[in-house]
Write a structure and sequence with these properties.
It contains 5 helices and no strands. It is mainly α. α2 runs parallel beside α3.
Length: 89
């Protein structure tokens, strides 16, 4: 998604509406400050990026995450995010 964010920055797309986070925990810390009622949100990331945690935070009823979201076993939910090796090459 970094490529998309960079491409959008080179267009007339409103710069203040482009958000790109390399770490899902940073995205999670910022999401409530960014999202407004009526927003349409694209959440893109690999399973390893733990995007379901972002989706859970955005649910109108987060307590229903176990029912509504995939991969909600306790072992998966407790698995930490690990940055891919290629980020450090």
């Amino acid at each position: 998604m970094q490529y998309l964010a960079d491409a959008l920055r080179e267009t007339n797309f409103p710069q203040k509406q482009i958000y790109n986070f390399l770490d899902p925990s940073v995205a999670l810390q910022n999401v409530s400050d960014i999202v407004r009622p009526g927003d349409l949100i694209l959440i893109k990331g690999s399973r390893g990026m733990r995007m379901e945690k972002i989706v859970e935070a955005l649910l109108g009823e987060p307590e229903k995450a176990l029912e509504l979201l995939a991969c909600q076993s306790s072992s998966w939910r407790n698995k930490p995010f690990v940055a891919p090796e290629e980020w450090f090459r």
